[in-house]
Amino acid sequence: MKTILPEEVQAKLQAGEALNLIDVREVDEVAAGHIPGITNIPLGLLEFKMNELDKKKAYIMVCRSGGRSGQATAFLESQGYDVTNMTGGMLDWTGDVE
Question: Which residues of 1-98 form beta strands (DSSP E)?
C-alpha cells in the first residue's frame, strides 16, 4: 500500500498541484474541519460510490488518524484504483482547514 505524509500532501498543494483528495470520515466529522477542496465519501458508502471515481486518476485517501483511509486504500487498490493513504490523517494535518 502506498502512503504519503500530511506534510508531503501540504507541500504538493502549496506548489499548486491538483490533487484528488477523498475524505472517508463521516459527514459531521468533515463538517467540523477538512482540507479545502476535498471530496467526502464516507467509508461505509465507498463501495457504492467507487464507480464515480476514475481509474485513470490518482487519489489520496484521508480520515481522522489514517485507519479508515487505510481500509479505503486497500479496498480501492484491490479494485484497480491508483490510491495512496495519508498516514496520520487529520490529527497530523497542519495545513489549511475549512
Answer: 2-4, 21-23, 39-40, 58-62, 82-86
Where are the chain's structural domains? 2-91
Q: Which three cell numbers stand for residue 26?
A: 463521516
Q: Which class is 2-91 in CATH?
A: alpha beta
Whole-model pTM: value is 0.97
Can you tell me the distance from the alpha carbon of 5 to that of 10, in angstroms, rounded to the nearest whole number? 9
pLDDT tens, position by position, 53-81: 999 999 999 999 999 999 999 999 999 99
Give the catalytic positions in this structure. 63
Report helix, strand or coil for 77. helix
Cell numbers describing residue 98: 475549512
